[in-house]
Design brief:
The chain folds into two domains: about 60 residues, 5,6-Dimethylbenzimidazole Phosphoribosyltransferase, Chain: A, domain 1 (Orthogonal Bundle), CATH 1.10.1610.10; about 270 residues, Rossmann fold. It is built from 15 helices and six strands. It starts with a helix and ends in a 7-residue tail after the last helix. The structure holds nicotinate mononucleotide and 5,6-dimethylbenzimidazole.
């Protein structure tokens, strides 16, 4: 399924990009006056291979939830059971992601890819559990390569199912206490940064915990032999398995699945940024189908976005995860595309163009 998905991904269509750029300039507005929105519309035209690109409606948020063995090292002030408790909160509609999704008219699906507890069945819960949490990445690989591939394929499957039920835009979400440690390790490896530059304070930690977290990320890279550059997709899979989380792997698969279906994927915060680095290492063309929804306060996120060459749409200091930053960006993406559908041209509206 992974190989088949990678084979189906097409890069952006340069002709659609050129057409979309030219069309933007014929709309009744001064050239470039919509700033980043013009780039978003052009990008989505390239991704879809059509000008104007289809409206990205309806949208579906998938929140991938998992636990982390590195939690035992004291890298977060929150108990591990908050992961499963928040899953219950998403399912009953009480989390911030639910409020933002309701505001934006987006559906919410929760996917268990590795929560360290059994979950009762629920209508919006998809059970794709790989294991009851990863192993401690600072002592050895967090998961096997086989588990990493299964988690990637879980994400591909969720993207396929959501698109089959009508979604025309996918938004990434995550829930996993301690997952900012795994995110920092992935970003250090895939973006070639020092752990101290890309480790952040996650849900909120004091200086002593922060120092320990940086040391743990360093230990993870050392123990797993990840100091050299990644050169092949097989290196990327091994690095993902060594220091990633099940939700990172599944989100990487979700991105690949969306790209293969030519449906745009709006990325959330640092966890999605780390997952996008993995997806891009497996197939750089997948990035043509991604939009960076926002920039999280977590320092590794800016490093990941810079490495990917993605410009975040919203920058409001959020550091919650769940898909909240992606959900805030979604109406902006819709507005950018609607301009291409609804706005008159200078010719059709009889508006005189500038003379010099
Ligand atoms: O999206 C982000 O950029 C982000 C930044 C900081 C924290 N989080 C969320 O907080 C949890 C991980 O934080 P921590 O401190 O336990 O590693 C996890 O559930 C994430 O969704 C998310
Ligand atoms: C309460 C809480 C909600 C969250 N949502 C995403 N990560 C989270 C972490 C905590 C601790």
């Amino acid at each position: 399924m992974l190989a088949e998905t990678l084979a189906a991904i097409r890069p952006a269509d340069p002709r659609a990009i050129a057409e979309a750029r030219a069309y933007q300039d014929r709309l009744t507005k001064p050239r470039g006056s919509l700033g980043a929105l013009e780039e978003i519309a052009v990008r989505l035209a390239g991704a879809a291979g059509a000008t104007p690109p289809p409206m990205p409606e309806p949208a579906a948020l998938a929140i991938f939830a998992a636990d982390h063995g590195v939690h035992a090292r004291g890298v977060t002030p929150w108990p591990q059971e908050v992961t499963v408790q928040m899953v219950a909160n998403f399912l009953s509609g009480g989390a911030v992601a639910n409020a933002f999704a309701a505001q934006a008219g987006v559906s919410v699906t929760v996917v268990d890819v590795g929560v360290a507890a059994d979950l009762p069945e629920a209508p919006n819960l998809v059970n794709r559990k790989i294991a009851y949490g990863t192993a401690d990445l600072s002592e050895g690989p967090a998961m096997s390569v086989d588990q990493a591939v299964r988690a990637l394929e879980a994400g591909i499957g969720v993207a396929r199912d959501l698109v089959a039920s009508g979604a025309r835009c996918l938004i990434t979400g995550d829930m996993g206490i301690a997952n900012t440690t795994a995110s920092a390790a992935l970003i250090a490896v895939f973006a070639g940064r020092d752990p101290a530059e890309v480790t952040g304070r996650g849900t909120g930690i004091d200086d002593e915990t922060f120092d320990r977290k940086v040391d743990i990320v360093r230990a993870a890279l050392r123990t797993n032999g990840l100091s050299g550059a990644l050169t092949a997709p097989s290196d990327a899979l091994r690095a993902l398995a060594a220091v990633g989380g099940f939700e990172h792997a599944a989100i990487a698969g979700f991105i690949l699945g969306g790209a293969a279906a030519r449906v745009p994927v709006i990325l959330d915060g640092v966890i999605a940024g780390a997952a996008a680095l993995v997806a891009a290492a497996l197939d750089p063309a997948a990035l043509d189908h991604c939009i960076a929804g926002h920039r999280s306060a977590e320092p590794g996120h800016a490093a990941a976005l810079a490495h990917l060459g993605l410009r975040p749409l919203v920058d409001l200091g959020l550091r919650l995860g769940e898909g909240t930053g992606g959900l805030l960006a979604y109406p902006v993406v819709c507005a950018a595309v609607r301009v291409m559908h609804d706005v008159a041209t200078f010719d059709s509206a009889g508006v005189t163009e500038k003379t010099v």
